[in-house]
Design a protein that fits this description.
Spore Coat Polysaccharide Biosynthesis Protein SpsA, Chain A
Length: about 300
């Protein structure tokens, strides 16, 4: 019998002493134990380093690393140093997992060796309640490189609901030093956009097992994010372009939109319309060929909907 994948978990903390213990304990309580639990303290000034050392310093399951404050992306990058697991999961210090989370996503990674990136829904708790997710059912998203490049569509979730095979995490986080300052916060954009554009096969698996805490600090950030919409969209576009340049994507790549769409076993009509728009507006072919591709995508999407 083939052994299941081993998990490495990177927990990033900055001034969340009041929450980080609950996050770490939720990893240690998993029914499918993580091979590594790496806690990255990003230069906290609220006493987190001493508190973490006192609570987990003698726990062989936990590796503690204290950094000079460099931001979330820097903590991701440094956290990857020495990672040995087959799959890397990320967890923010103010969030938590239900005890069967790694077991649930592990079943998918074990059975689908072609899947590179798995994300799930999040349960809001704290100042807000509710569930946020890509869909109400599991979705094999196939490949999403062209769609992400053209439309900047977000095939992902918050940091604590993201996981990917180690080789993909290493590729995604291989970024120029200048990006560390640009993505001090909201660095999950790098994980989500990078995995898509570099060519990872993605899968959405709703589990109901990731708790996303809404509180004063991150509530303030979401408000500022909305206020600075252009600046954030511009940052995301330059990030996507960086990954696309690494893949040498050009106008000829856009002619493959139909093929990328067909990598999805059961695409919804929203996805069909998105790809039809790409096929019609972009690429090197004359308009009759582009129209034919767009209509073929829509017909395929409609057939899938009827069969589903």
């Amino acid at each position: 019998m083939t052994a299941g994948v081993a998990f490495s978990v990177i927990v990033t903390n900055y001034n969340y002493r009041d929450y980080v213990g609950e996050a770490i304990d939720s990893v240690l309580a998993q029914t499918r134990a993580a091979a590594q639990v790496i806690v990255m303290d990003d230069g906290s000034t609220d006493g987190s380093p001493d508190w973490l050392a006192a609570r987990y310093g003698d726990d062989p399951r936990v590796t503690l690393r204290c950094l000079v404050n460099g931001g979330q992306l820097s903590a991701f990058v440094r956290g990857m140093e020495g990672v040995t697991g087959d799959v890397v999961c990320f967890l923010d210090a103010d969030d938590r997992w239900d005890k069967d989370y790694l077991d649930r996503i592990g079943e998918l990674y074990d059975s689908r060796r072609d899947i590179d990136f798995v994300f799930t829904d999040v349960n809001l708790f704290g100042n807000e309640q509710g569930i946020q997710g890509y869909a109400d059912h599991a979705v094999d998203l196939g490949y999403t490189a062209i769609s992400t490049w053209v439309t900047a569509y977000w095939y992902g979730a918050a940091t604590s609901a993201l996981s990917m095979r180690r080789a993909w995490a290493q590729r995604v986080l291989d970024l120029p030093a200048a990006f560390l300052a640009t993505w001090r916060i909201s660095a999950d954009n790098c994980l989500v956009f990078g995995a898509s554009v570099l060519g990872a096969r993605k899968y959405y698996l709703p589990t109901g097992m990731v708790g996303y805490r809404v509180h004063g600090a991150n509530g303030w950030w979401h408000a500022r994010h909305r206020e600075n919409q252009f600046a954030n969209l511009f940052r995301s576009r330059t990030l996507i372009n960086h990954y696309a340049e690494r893949m040498h994507m050009d106008v000829h790549t856009l002619d493959l939109a139909k093929a990328e769409f067909r990598s999805k076993p059961a695409p919804g009509m929203d996805e069909a319309w998105r790809y039809a728009g790409i096929a019609w507006r972009r690429g090197t072919a004359a308009w009759p060929k582009r129209l034919d591709r767009a209509l073929a995508i829509l017909r395929h999407g409609m057939r899938q909907r009827r069969q589903g």
